[in-house]
Amino acid sequence: MIDMDLETFEELVVEELDKLPDEMFEGLDNVVFMVEDRHETEELLGIYEGVAITDRGQYGFGELPDRIVVFRETHLARHSDIERLRDEVHTTLVHEIAHFYGIDDDELHRLGWA
Question: Which spans of this chain does the record mark as coiled coil (predicted)?
Answer without folding.
Answer: none
